[in-house]
Write a structure and sequence with these properties.
Blueprint lengths: L1 H27 L6 E3 L11 E4 L2 E5 L11 E4 L2 E5 L5 H4 L2 E6 L4 H18 L1
Amino acid sequence: MKNIFSKILIITGISLLVLLSFSNQANAQRFRGKIEYYSSVFPSEDGKIKSINGTKIEYYNSVFKSEDGKIKSIGNIKFEYNNSGSQKSDVKIKSILNENDDSESEDALDTYYFIERLNCQ
């Protein structure tokens, strides 16, 4: 009798932990705010996200194919890409710099990548 009760208690505890972890993940993916999109003559910008909750997003308009259309900045977060001439390394980010540890820019960055993941599905 004692073994059955302890097994039921363990299974109930594990079930509650699983349910709590699912509810935390659902809250992390919720977004309340405003997203604006570019309507531009530049193909590198047209249809891309312009701002998230007022945090401006800029894209490179570059002669380098590796940079053209890539994110230049999200708020105070600056992106830099490799320009080595090698096709494998040119598509990779060289550095991401968050000037002044701006938390609003970090929130916009998280939202941007969340939207990109959704668009790739």
